[in-house]
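Person: I keep going back and forth on a fold encoding question. Show me how you would write down a chain together with its backbone fold. Please set it down just below, with no commentary around it:
Helper:
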Amino acid sequence: MKKFLFSTSVLAIFACLLWATPFTAIKIGLKYSTPLQFAGMRFFISGLIILPFIKDLKSKIEKAKKRWHFILWVALLQTSFLYGLFYTGINYVPGALGAMLIGSSPLFTAVVAHFMLKNDKMSWQKIMAILIGISGVCIISLGRSDFVLTTTIPLGVGILILNNIVGSTGNVIVSRDAKDMPPRVLASFSMIIGGAVLLLVSIPTEHPTWSTIHPTEYYLSLAWLAMVSAFAITIWFGLLQRPGVKVSNLNTWKFIIPIFGASLSWMVLPGEKPDALSITGMLVIASSLLSINYLNRKALKIKNASN
């Protein structure tokens, strides 16, 4: 049972379930804070949350000092640049279009991994399966009421596409170069540094206020987002470092984020209920994940047979 609970698939699904919850909390937080300031606060606190769970912290800090270049690079890519772009871009597009663009990240990851990793090459079958998954995300997103056209869409689309490229590159770098770095240490230090950078950048670019007097919903949203990041990113970094785990295959699990997101909306938000488009999109995504898992098992059998 323990082996099943800590399997790559189960942990990946759990991380994606956590990542499906923040969108409402982000919208709440941005009513009282600027994007970069709010993102910086979120990730700085997330990094601090992880610190007490790092065993033998003092010695881990000494070891981390030897790889501070790598930690800084991950912090900038996976926290500062990635979420700076995400929080900025999401403000320029309707939520449905933003969900579609973020939902296409597995395709960008597959392309980046193809060029950066020797053991993670694309095949036409995998590309088709990923495109099927993206079409499912599009179907779910098109059914949302906020899918409207605005003059800011081209800017927002460009920012979110860049966000996908940055995120994919960061995933590949963690998978390739972080084998000797404990996931909690990397997640904690990179989020503390990345969050601090976002806060510093927000000062000259957004001129935010630093009032601590906010409604309870602001602090609840910030606390939830910090907890989500602390757990989900630590899990994800650990999975990326597992032997035999391919970055492109792991990231296809992110297709289930819109499924979880839509399901949560139906359970929590008044007036939200399942519709034909959403159900169709979920079935399309399910077929994509089944296809990808079949291709992965087939490739593994061929590899084992040749050894």
